[in-house]
């Protein structure tokens, strides 16, 4: 299934879901849209706040306290105190249409939506109970319902002061606007469009990740899918979806707990994803371990939530969210450069930019929430902005990573295809060589047989007959060794392992040599049977004996010995064949086992330069080792075989 089709399918589903969410209204009251005389103006002209550390003061008592003026959003951090707000509201401008909702009622539009309890005290109605809003209240009972917290008051005819009491386990961050009813509806419709765009974008990123994982499952992409799915749910909880769409099925207190629960789970999912993502770049191990520790603190925070310590749990999570981006940025600064041969990866600069931007945005949300920095107007939306920006940048980084991986995969496929073509060409060449060698061996063997028949007609005492027979034997030996070399390089003969009596095999091969009288054989008593291939081992021993007889000093003796030999903790046998150097001199130690190599003085003798090369290759096949020793005028070859 192509990736583009999956992306279109997920996009269609996301669009359908969002249209269904936005169409499931109206979320507001029953009033029709009117055009106010002063559209969009916040009627609050002055704001002040007071912190009740005793949590016992009543409305009549706090009005006489010392109040602190403020502007814009108020961020009082995670405090167990009660926060009181005093708001001065100007009278709205009237027009000639009496009875319109925008003239008779005002909406106190309160953000963010995740506040536990907000009580409104209107001095104009001292006998009435305070009007309530917040996550602990049933959303369906509100006079004006939207994704925000809302309170409705009668429009004043002159400037008045109203008081709000905020009690919440979350951070004491709050922003209040007093709007005409129709202005509030217009603002909320704009907000719904923005919310729809945010959720649609997050779902699109999730769809891309799912489609990419289906096409090529990878652990990092799987971790990002979990990260993005939980981030979408967390964004929906922050934006009020849980409170709006679950209020018919779940109690308000449980919905409020779910929002806090999502905060903890989202933090863990994000940290686990970054752990999987960054470890590919081999950052300092201590930093990765610290990321794991921060991610595993979720069970502690959930335990605190379940036991009633909601505020400390949320405070811990906020602290983690404050310092973890700095840790991620630090890890990005110290990633290791790709080693030679490693697949291509994202550059350090790109990772530093990604994590630097994410760190700044998240700091603008968490530091004011902790009360450590003043709160700018846009800080209320920093958490959602962080979700959008992080999804964008992580999507970009993962997409670039995927493209690099795909390009590397294509390069490897091209290299593999080229290697396969070269292998086919090499196999064709090998096949042609084998056919040529087979033909040549057949023709030469027939020719040598004819030559041998012709030599048989010469007198027995003829020197020409003896020389002819020796030449024929040399040519047959060359043909045999060429055939063995082809079979060995084609790996046509696998070793047939059996228990071999090495001294007996060596004695049998010595008896077949033409100059047996010049071979001195000695074997250590009690030599055990050796697991080897007798045919291949016979080729090695025959080549070594033939080489020693051919290049020995005139009338000298060849010494052949067999004895036990330990290599570390491995038992084995050592076979030694040595001779006095003849007219050809000693072989070059660096070239003696090279294919077709023959010494300058050795060219006076018939040979192919394959005997020692074949012997060394066969020794490797038998898990043994053949090596050359030179001492004084002696030339010695030693073969070690494991028992």
Description:
The chain contains 16 helices and 17 strands. The protein is of the alpha+beta class and 643 residues long. It has 3 domains: 184 residues, Immunoglobulin-like, CATH 2.60.40; 189 residues, no CATH class; 148 residues, Heat Shock Protein 90 (2-Layer Sandwich). A 6-stranded antiparallel β-sheet has the order 2-1-4-9-6-7, with no helix packed on it. Strands 12-14-15-17-16 form a 5-stranded mixed β-sheet. Strands 3-10-5-8 form a 4-stranded antiparallel β-sheet. A hairpin with a 2-residue loop joins strand 16 and strand 17. Helix 4 packs parallel to helix 12, helix 5 packs antiparallel against helix 12 and helix 12 runs antiparallel to helix 13. It is rod-shaped and about 145 Å long. The N terminus is likely disordered.
